[in-house]
Amino acid sequence: MAYSRGTSTNIIVGAAALFVADTTLTPGTMAAFVNGESYKETLADNAAYDNVGYTMNGLEMQFQPDFGEVQVDQILDVAKLYKQGMQVSVATAFAEATLENLLLALAGNNDDLTGTKSSSAGRILNLSAGDIGECPVERGIVAVGPGTGDCEDSAAVERVYIGYRALSIENVTVSAKRDEASMFEVSFRLLPEDTSGAYGKIIDRTHTVTS
To answer: For residue 161, which of 97, 120, 122, 168 sits 20 to 30 Å off, Cα-Cα?
Structure first.
């Protein structure tokens, strides 16, 4: 193969649309891809997924392997490294400060959110302290962003990020400031799915542009 400086069409720039599922996901329970349709549209039409809307600072997926060391007398550095742990996390910020998004950021139960804004009592998010031994709320997350490809074909190319079990684990701040938008910074810890042992998957797909 002849030398090439690189392939500019493999450079990805752009934000992703983030969806949160009502429950955890597995390879068998993911919404199926539809020919001729972006996965954003597929998820938007599925009542089991909630679109968080605008986000800030993009989407960041971080892989944190943990390695153990074997030291020997004959060399000053370690002689061998072995993998002894792994963590995967996804971070973003919800720019739409709705109670629905705050519930997701707090990993709250759906029952904690009641009422409607049009009623006299209003839309209410109960800030529950929980009970001893209460199970943390896990949800699946899916992000659909731009993929690689020629500019004229980019509307038909997308990259899909899937996390089967996501748990919000970081502090969440709710603010009302004169010179700053109210948003919820959230960090999800991904856990491996039971059957496959996988955290999720990343898929590059091309769909036919519909007219």
So the answer is: 97
Q: How far apart are CA 102 and CA 95, in angstroms?
A: 11
Query: How far apart are alpha carbons 148 and 156 in whole angstroms?
Result: 10
Is 149 domain-assigned?
Answer: yes
**Contact (CB, 8 A) for 112 and 99:** no
Could you tell me if residue 1 is inside a domain?
no
CA atoms within 13 A on the CB side of 32: 2
For residues 16 and 201, what is the distance between their CA atoms, to the nearest angstrom?
A: 15
Other CB atoms within 10 A of residue 52 CB:
23
d(CA 145, CA 143): 6
Measured distance CA(83)–CA(69) in Å, rounded: 9
State which H helix or E strand residue 210 sits in. none
How many domains would you assign to the chain? 1
Q: State which amino acid sits at residue 109.
A: N
- Stated pTM of the model: 0.88
Q: What is the band of 132 on the pLDDT scale with cuts at 50, 70, 90?
A: confident
Cβ neighbours of 166 (radius 10 Å): 30
Give a yes or no: residue 6 inside a domain: no
Q: Is residue 3 part of a domain?
A: no
Structural domain boundaries, residue 94: 14-127+136-206
Phi and psi at residue 166, in whole multiples of 5°? -120, 135
